Automatic annotation (TrEMBL):
Principal cellular location given in the protein's record: membrane
UniProt GO MF annotations: transmembrane transporter activity
Bilayer topology annotation: Multi-pass membrane protein
Oligomeric form and interacting partners: The complex comprises the extracytoplasmic solute receptor protein and the two transmembrane proteins.
Protein name: TRAP transporter small permease protein
Entry keyword set: Cell inner membrane, Cell membrane, Membrane, Transmembrane, Transmembrane helix, Transport
Residues annotated as transmembrane: 15-33, 45-66, 86-110, 122-143
Organism name: Shimia aestuarii
Family under the similarity heading: Belongs to the TRAP transporter small permease family.
Top-level taxon of the source organism: Bacteria
Function: Part of the tripartite ATP-independent periplasmic (TRAP) transport system.
GO CC annotation, single: plasma membrane
One protein family per Pfam: DctQ
Length: 163
């Protein structure tokens, strides 16, 4: 069951991130073509592209977690010795705790934005629906680390550790 949860999350996040990046590329191309070919800029396209990049970037955090491909220091890799598996599990529990704390803080941020009615400059839409990607990304990354701690066989092995 945990494996199917991981696969489902990763597939969904991959699709949404890909669509977001495609949207960013399309919006920027339309903006450049509009300015260079037609001497006319489209109001708000650059801002929309930035918002798309924010969504894709936060989903990139969750996808890096899925692949166990975060950048990290390597100099302590051999220090745990025969306790390496236990240390890795503890690291995943610690990472899950960190990400869940980040989810809580970011949810508080979104709630404040909801209550104050923050709107995007130029485009004037409410920001909180877009900001939901932040607590989602932290929650998803935390959940994945928790799954890795509960079932280490589901955690992809890093190329850094295997050479």
């Amino acid at each position: 069951m945990l494996k199917s949860v991981l696969k489902g999350l990763t597939l969904t996040e991959s699709i949404v991130a890909t669509v977001a990046y495609a949207l960013v590329a399309t919006l920027l191309m339309v903006d450049v073509i509009g300015r260079e070919v037609f001497s006319s800029a489209f109001l708000g396209l650059q801002q929309l592209a930035v918002y798309g990049a924010i969504v894709a970037g936060f989903l990139g955090l969750t996808l890096a977690t899925s692949d166990n491909s975060h950048l990290r220091p390597e100099f302590l890799d051999g220090l745990a010795g025969r306790h390496g598996a236990a240390v890795a599990r503890f690291g995943d529990v610690l990472s899950a705790s960190f990400f869940f704390a980040g989810a809580y803080v970011s949810w508080t941020f979104v709630q404040i934005s909801m209550e104050s009615g923050d709107k995007a400059p130029v485009l004037y839409f409410l920001l909180w629906p877009l900001q939901l990607v932040i607590p989602y990304a932290f929650t998803s990354a935390g959940l994945k680390h928790l799954i890795f701690a509960l079932s280490p066989t589901l955690k992809p092995h890093s190329d850094i550790l295997t050479g």
